[in-house]
Write a structure and sequence with these properties.
Chain lengths: 575, 575
């Protein structure tokens, strides 16, 4: 059944609590969003003592289910002012699950600025002074933690951005090599951790029992089918393992939906220079890894390790969204510059989507030149120096636009748009507008049917069908996030008739339940309803469910416009 | 009847239009708020081409009515995201009225960054390149304008803050000495003017006829009684002329409502050092002016000219709110430092309330030390240098708090609170919370009955009566702002049975109408309803009608708390 672990960051105390019945069937995003709604006053200051930072493993995390090692982090977002769930791979989710910790809740706020770290293992919990970890980047923190607590220790940490409570701050997780390549990136949750003066959380599961499975045989059968599905799908079995997520660069550019120069057109002249193919080739030449899992038990392995021109490690977890944000969006075309920007984000603990979009806005405002990678690196470096420029850009795209008087800022609910233009990939545009998370492709990845031909086809350039597409995906995604599954399983789930049933079979086998697929859909809707309820209490309205004015501009090459009314959009999450 | 003058800032063209019937009976705030509601899309970017900046003289402006020379400026606010009306004295309101211009509307947005200036006189309108006025402060701009266009020319201009489109930017008006001592301070309207690349507006009424009065005798009689009332009231006839608005320092400090060190207590140990008495004494010693009107025809004359220790001009229009914001709020106690901060704000074009509160927030966040006037001057100076620190603090208290990770930021609707603590002066606290303008004492000055014993008495420390007090004052103030009258006339209006009737008599005599006091009350309500309607369309909700969390703290010396519920507050402007 597990426990809730509450940590009072002011008093430096902790308590294990029984899980209330109402939370028993919840995990991952379902649990974080429910608890944020229940326990966080919606109008509180996100950096104040009344906000809470909640980590919850997915329902399947810790089990042998393939690709189930995602950890959800939830809080009131300093970026959006609404509820936030941001999930990531790494090592922590499975370890918390094995330790029987259903949720870890950070509460309160210390009065001073001294940082602590939290050590969780099978013997209990320690809250220790962070000592010389303060002002260190995530690379140094994670190296120190693995040195001290052993390899393969789960680590959650913040870098200089989180310490400064910047709205772009991420919480990073040690990847399988002990590097901060995985991130709870979106929504500034690193700032919430920083406000509670927690520098790092270390999780070790040595001595912990395996996660209990009520029906081992049934679980094994379902998981076998599950793995087979993931292996056999062309996206999760071939495209992602071979080229990583950057496989999308050429695909989305070809589709004319690759937002270039702050969303001015859908094709980037230098897409080839930053494509998945070029990256894979470069990695092979320089020595790196093209096919790496973000957590143990992943069979897709879309992550990577990228070396510099001298063959030395430069960055890892170098993803499509990052490459787009620092690349086409800013018109920087040098892959090594983009990789360095990614590395800085991992080290300082910053969301790469938010930061890439921010650099584009800084270019729009004349702070730096379009396409100038070296100056962009210098500017991003200011975050690590605690300099005023860093406090501007580290607070994200809208903040930077406001600092510079720029009125062309691509955000919804104050969060930067990701790598698919909403005018030429309308299914994901609907998700950007209506997701309680703010602009977020992972909340309902309409790219599937719009461009990839997965789960049917819906014309990306027309209105028809796109609201239903986004709705279905948002509901399914919420459930996937509750299970702790990687979003990419959606490809296999959508294209296999027994896809969702197989997930349900694993849940039933693990917990001794008899859920149906309808129950899972209902869970997805309940999550979204909770999140919308929080946002309404926090003061967000229908106005916040719209794209900004700039998307009324016509978008080449298809010369499409954003043509959904407020009334259209309000249909999306009406259940 | 007058005309509307529309200026297209992109095309650099202008047009005079007939006044629609619906606007015929409106002036000042009544007209700007109606036009913003009618013409500005509520969800537009405040710095984008769809926002409009509208100036309107009050209904009595240009007439001989005492203290009727206030000009309203209206737009969607870059600071609050809602509607804004900010009025100021100076020379422009009366001149526009004499030129028959009922409203001046700046529309559109140029594509480049070149600034223009607008010259309006009896011969017509010119839109000229601003040339070397660019990047100049308001002192230099106004001096250049008076040199070129003659003394007593009306000037509206922005300084470096407006050019940078900062949320704290004001629009300044030349005072009777041609200095920028008067400001449309609140809500960042200078940024809207900057976004439209208008550096200055020059208004000359040479050759224009007098404002027509339908019944000259009746007007004369009413105005005579009006002047008598203003002269005979102890506040407008004695306190304000003698000591200026800073007469309030000792009064509010004594009442325990003088917010000190970012609203931590209601008494400032060094209040005496920055009191009206000390200021008047200092001015007399050094040579300056203690009793000066902010516009011709003012009989209260609460403005001043303040010299430095060498007897040279330092600043003017040195007001209570400014002295509080840079003084008690930041714990700076050196009057000359405070005066220098005021001067910098006038020169760069910044709202002194917003900037003072911002400096306190910067101290809260450790950017500079509490009470350190010299460092505060250096920091504020960064705005004039176009430096990153300036882009942070110039964007106001909330922005600075966000940049620094401070969760203790005294704002409502993102606008900084003025100089009366809402816990120990609850009537004005209700106004802060519920005014469509954001935290603004001038929107419903509950200090009257709470502390000054004007218009009755309502206990400032208790809930009882304060919602009704604020409601009545907000309605009356909206009407006063429509008339173009100085807010301080409210003292005489509240304490004379025939006060409001006298204003109505002047309106009737000028326009040949037969309005009643009920009509004027109805006008006030209509203004507030319009403003709330705009805000709702812009996405503001009941959540925005509340004080921030920090006011739940107990406030010494009376140890009062903010104890109004959302339901209580929603009663205030329910008509």
């Amino acid at each position: 059944m597990g426990k809730l672990l509450r940590i009072n960051t002011k008093e430096k105390t902790f308590a294990f609590e029984e899980v209330p019945d109402a939370y028993a069937a919840l995990g991952g995003r379902a649990l974080t969003s429910q608890m944020v709604l229940d326990e966080v006053p919606a109008t509180c200051h996100p950096l104040g003592k009344n906000n809470k930072l909640i980590f919850a493993p997915g329902l399947l995390s810790g089990s042998p289910a393939a690709d189930s090692g995602r950890l959800s982090a939830g809080a009131k977002s300093p970026l959006t002012g609404g509820i936030k769930e941001s999930n990531a791979g790494g090592l922590v989710s499975q370890k918390l699950a094995k330790l029987g910790i259903k949720a870890l809740i950070l509460e309160g706020k210390p009065e001073g600025n001294d940082y602590s770290m939290i050590v969780i293992n099978n013997d209990g919990v320690e809250i220790l002074p962070a000592g010389n970890l303060e002002k260190k980047g995530n690379y140094a923190v994670m190296e120190a933690m693995w040195d001290k607590y052993g390899k393969n220790t789960g680590v959650l940490s913040i870098g200089q951005a989180g310490e400064q409570c910047l709205k772009g701050a991420s919480i990073n997780q040690a990847d399988i090599n002990g590097r901060p390549g995985r991130a709870h990136g979106r929504g500034g949750l690193g700032a919430v951790m920083g406000s509670k003066r927690i520098k790092a959380i270390v999780v070790n599961d040595k001595g912990a029992p395996r996660v209990e499975l009520q029906d081992k045989d049934a679980f094994k059968t379902a998981n076998k089918r599950w793995v087979e599905m993931l292996h056999n799908h062309p996206v999760t079995g071939e495209g992602l393992p071979a080229l990583g997520t950057a496989v999308l660069v050429n695909v989305i550019n070809e589709a004319g939906a690759f937002p270039t120069k702050n969303f001015r057109s859908g094709r980037f002249d230098h897409a080839k220079d930053i494509s998945g193919e070029t990256i894979a080739e470069t990695i092979e030449k320089r020595g790196g890894v093209t096919t790496e899992p973000c957590h143990p038990g992943c069979v897709i392995k879309c992550s990577n390790v990228y070396h510099d021109k001298d063959g030395k490690y430069l960055t890892s977890g170098f993803e499509y969204e990052t490459i787009w944000a620092f690349g086409a969006h800013t018109t920087i075309k040098e892959l090594d510059d983009i990789a360095m920007l990614d590395r800085l984000c991992d080290d300082f603990g910053l969301d790469t989507i938010e930061m890439g979009v921010t650099l584009g806005v800084a270019m729009e405002g004349g702070m730096i030149e379009w396409g100038d990678g070296k100056t962009a690196i210098d500017l991003l470096g200011k975050v690590g120096e605690y300099a005023p420029e860093g406090k501007i850009i580290g607070n994200g795209a809208l903040f930077t636009g406001d600092a510079l008087g720029v009125d062309r800022v691509p955000v919804v609910k104050k969060q930067a748009l990701p790598a698919y233009d909403p005018r030429s990939c309308k299914g994901v545009g609907i998700t950007y507008a209506t997701s309680p998370m703010g602009a977020d492709h992972t909340a309902g990845y309409g790219v599937t049917a719009n461009i990839l031909g997965v789960g049917g086809t819906v014309d990306p350039l027309k209105k028809e069908g796109n609201i239903a597409l986004s709705q279905g995906l948002q509901v399914a995604t919420a459930a996937v996030d509750a299970a702790g599954l990687c979003l990419f399983v959606a490809f296999a789930v959508l294209d296999n008739e027994d896809g969702l049933q197989t997930v349900v079979d694993m849940l039933n086998a693990q917990y001794g339940l008899s859920l149906t697929t309808d129950d899972v859909i209902a869970l997805g809707k309940a999550i979204l309803n909770n999140e919308r309820a929080f946002n309404r209490k926090a003061g967000l309205t229908e106005v916040d469910d719209q794209l900004p004015e700039m998307f009324k501009e016509s978008f080449p090459p298809h010369n499409t416009k954003w043509d959904f009314s407020n009334e259209d959009l309000q249909e999306t999450l009406k259940f």
